[in-house]
Amino acid sequence: MSGSGGWGFVVRNSNGEAVGVAVGRLDHAQDALHTEADACSRALHLVQECGISRIQIESDSQLLVQTLNNEGNEMGQCGVLIKEIKESIFLNFFCFNISFCPRTCNRVADGLTTFGAMLRDVPQVVWPGHPRDFVHCYLASNLAALVE
Question: How confident is the model at residue 129 (pLDDT cuts 50, 70, 90)?
Answer without folding.
Answer: confident
